[in-house]
User: Fold these one by one.
Assistant:
Number 1:
Amino acid sequence: MNDDVKSREVLIQELDEARQARAEQAKSCRAEKTAALELLAGGVAHDINNALTEIMGYTSIMLRSFKPGAPEYEDLDAIQRAAVRMRVLTRRLQAFARRLPPQPVETDLNGLVGDLASKLQELTGAQVQLDVNLSLDLGTVRVDPEQMQWVLMDLVHNAREAISAGGQITLETANVELLDECTCQCGRTLCGPHVMLSVRDTGAGMDNETLSHAFDPFFTTKDRRAGMGLPAAYGIVTA
């Protein structure tokens, strides 16, 4: 009987070790894939930006030769506006690849959320309830305000895409205390007092397959989107 018990204990231990090994291997594969995607995205963004600089420069010069309303002016202006939209996309690629150096300053996240309130409400629309719960005694944080605005807009936009009419998005700030050391996605060990910014929605969530690709550039479940919102936000918060 004792031998049977010991055999079962050994088998359970071996199964646990096998599960841990598979989990570590999967984690390593994800890290390698992310690093490769970051390298590719950064290189592509750099090359496209160089081309856009030339396009925007030449069209700006050519626009001076025509008056607004002229067919040639309208065509050149359309090219210029398309280039500006493309530059926004390349900046998101750079954010994902961590090639947009942040300019951190002491920032009140409550104030940042307040400044974006009207844009966030416009983003969610009238058919989705947007609840904002801000901590009254929130501490300040050192972040790049512009990049944090991108993160917040991208998260709310993604939440809006995940829910149907009648759904709810909750945006919350709070002071939190991490009692035990934990390692975040960026590899830093966190412990002690921190400030939390949370975006939650009442959507159905993601299945495991979708979740495994959520931060991949251009991955999207929506045909009409570029799929760069979450990857850019991920790159910013883990930089």
Number 2:
Amino acid sequence: MEASSPAGGVPPGLPGRVLVLKTAAIGDCINALGAVRALREALPAAHLAWLVGRASADAVVGQAPVDDWIVVDDATLVRRRPLPLLSLTGALRARRFDTALVLHRALPVRLLARAAGVPRRVGLVREASDRRLLTDAVVDEPGVLEGERYWRAAERLVGRALPRARGAWTPPASAVERAAARWRAWGWQEATGVVALAPGGGVNPRTRFELKRWPLAYFAELTRRLRAQGLRVLVLGLPEEVTAFRAAVGDLDGIETASGDLRLAGALLARCRACVANDSGLLHLAAAAGVPCVAIFGPTNPEVWGPYGPGHRVVRHAVPCQPCYHDDGVLPACRFEHRCMRDLPVDEVLGAVAGLLTTARR
């Protein structure tokens, strides 16, 4: 990769070449869109680049006014392969960034920014004492949404308050066309009442947290109840998640599925009246696409990882051990039979869906 020339016309004292490091996971990358757009507005003359992993790239590339999308193999970052890492570090160093916005708390990501020769490194930390390899540390505040934390880090970078706006996600034109073709192939009209379900989640290049999932049998029963009300159901997820759902729900009409394409998934979601999802990338994609969501939470904290914006409903069954995940890459084995999810009844989720649909009709 060739080095770019320094940005021209940047006022003195402001960053001229900014690198955003937000490589994963899908939902977190989507929730960073609003802050990156605000950063662009605050620094219109700067050169702005975003380093993102390939697994999350389709969710964000083209969704923010970024000059340089640097898409890398996730294995390079997760497995820390020496030769690819050296190549990436050299390519970043050649771009001569003067400021990095580190939207990860992991030390290796900070180290990458430092090794790339970026002199100013603004980043998030869990504790005030953990400022290693950062020049400016923004400490997490309890009960603050992750997307809001990204905004606060961007504000530290530019040195002033930034306006808040929902990190809207707009499907590309090609995905809109493909979604319309799917709708026609399924025999659905534009006004057909469709509820999307995302029964999977918890999978990203570094971790697999299946304890974040409401039981599949409950999703199957929810589907039967929605169909009994005359609603169509669209199921989205990874291929293995969709296959498992089909096996759980059996031979039931009025259900369609799609998998393996984030841009198509976003365009399909934008046509739905509501979405029911675990804490997952598809939950945040639906919320960013403007779809009212019923968000099912168990081990994770909805005050931090809940859907951004108004009009959503969070459902959870409270147990004393919640939350057991604290953004440290470790979800401990459950000693309480997954009660936070298993004891959340279908009736409660169905009622939340009904509430969303009633509100949408007003």
